[in-house]
């Protein structure tokens, strides 16, 4: 289930003659890292796979839910907050590389919450 998986791409399209066709492509070599997406076991296997992540990251707090990872930081000083968040993101990136996972930069977002005074802008982090 986890070893020698293949990525399969299937495209269904209508040709100029109006007939529906299917295109199927298997990408090689076999995939031996990560967990299968779109399966019932995927979220559970992902949690088992990343179980040690919260203990491996020293900066901030890491929370896991289903197949999501949330990395939280707090500080009264926005410059220190940015530095702490960048250090934590660097740690997280290193952990991902060591565990043969990819950090999806397109889905990695920073969200800031304020309880008093609103800041001018969110800090820029580099994934």
TrEMBL record:
- May I ask which residue range the UniProt record assigns to the signal sequence? none
Domain named Reverse transcriptase is located at 1-127
UniProt cross-references to PROSITE patterns, sorted A to Z? RT_POL (PS50878)
Q: Which InterPro entries match?
A: RT_dom (IPR000477)
In terms of PANTHER family, this protein maps to: REVERSE TRANSCRIPTASE DOMAIN-CONTAINING PROTEIN
What's the name of the protein? Reverse transcriptase domain-containing protein
Originating species: Homalodisca liturata
């Amino acid at each position: 289930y986890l070893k020698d998986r293949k990525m399969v791409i299937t495209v269904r399209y209508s040709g100029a003659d109006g007939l529906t066709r299917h295109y199927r492509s298997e990408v090689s070599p076999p995939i031996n890292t990560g967990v299968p997406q779109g399966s019932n076991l995927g979220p559970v296997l992902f949690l088992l796979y990343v179980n040690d992540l919260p203990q491996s990251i020293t900066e901030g707090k890491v929370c896991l839910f289903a197949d999501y990872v949330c990395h939280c930081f707090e500080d009264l000083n926005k410059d220190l907050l940015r530095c702490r968040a960048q250090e934590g993101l660097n740690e997280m990136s290193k952990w991902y590389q060591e565990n043969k996972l990819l950090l999806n930069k397109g889905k990695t977002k920073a969200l800031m919450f304020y309880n008093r005074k609103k800041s001018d802008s969110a800090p820029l982090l580099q994934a």
